[in-house]
Each structure stands twice: as C-alpha cells, then as structure tokens.
Amino acid sequence: MAGSTFNDKEWIAAFAQLQGPMKESLARRMCVSGGKVLEQEAKRNAARVKVWKYNPTSFGSQKKGTLVKAIYLARNEKLTNSYQFTYTVSWNRKIAPYGKFVEFGYKQIYVVFKDRTGEFHTNKKIMLKTPRPVPATSFLGKAYDSHVHIAHQAMLERGREEFPKLIREQSQATETADV
Hints:
Blueprint: H1 9-17, H2 20-47, H3 66-70, E1 71-75, E2 87-91, H4 99-104, E3 106-114, E4 120-134, H5 140-178
Antiparallel strand pairs: 1-2, 3-4
Helix pairs in contact: 2-5
C-alpha cells in the first residue's frame, strides 16, 4: 500500500513469526482491505462528477456512471517484489479515457455552447482565442487524501483478524509435516 508503512514493533515481530507464503498472504490480504476503502471512495467521488452529453459515436463514452465502472483495484506487478506488495487504485483508460481530464484538469481550446434544452456541446470548428483552464475534479487524489487513515485502519484490522488464522494454518502444516 503506497504511503502506508508499518513501523510498529508488534507488527514486525508478528510478521517474523510467519514463514514464506503465509507472510505474503497476510500482506496481500491487508493491502487489499486498504485498497478497497480507497477504491470505494474514488467511486463515490467519481459518481459526483458532472459529464458532458453522451455521444454514442464518440470514442470513450462520457455516459453517466462510465467513469465509476472504470475504477478498479489491482496488484501492481511492476512495483511488487519479494519485500513489497503494491496495489493500485486507478481507472481503465480504454473505458473512460476522459478520466485524466477529470482527475488532473485541462485547457479548453474549443467553444462550448448550451442548446435550447440546456445541454452543452463542443464546437470543434471554432477555437478559443485564449485556452481556458478547466480545473480538476479529483476523484482518486481526493479519495487518498480523505481516506488514507481509514484505509490504514482497515489494513490493521484485517491483519488482526487474519494473523491468528494464518498462525494456526502454519502450525497445522508443521504438525502434518512432522508426522
């Protein structure tokens, strides 16, 4: 879990008791618990984002709910190694390519107009003389900033639940191997 570390001596001692796959299993379970907290908050934030009119012929539908459905939690293979397990909360850029504009903002370069029904449209035939900055409506960063402590607590709670189970499994495996 990026940004969350366990410096507590009790946790270091607890991890030392676990061996091999059991240690990895506990770390993964804890990371997923924290990641789910951040994923759910990112989805709540994305659900509040206003979207432009849905155009079925345009690439990357901006239909309401598309960005929410595109948000996921996954193991980050590039940043995971035998000492560190990394999970990422992000969005699928093929499903919602406009997510980057929502998260980071952009410069509007074309004229946008409102029709009689109150819907907004972009006129790509008319460029603005001066690009207009459109501020970000962060959904991922805001989720992290507001819920990192809750995610950390979820990770610790999951560790407290799973640790005794894994110790029992490890003991049973050792007893079976000794027989």
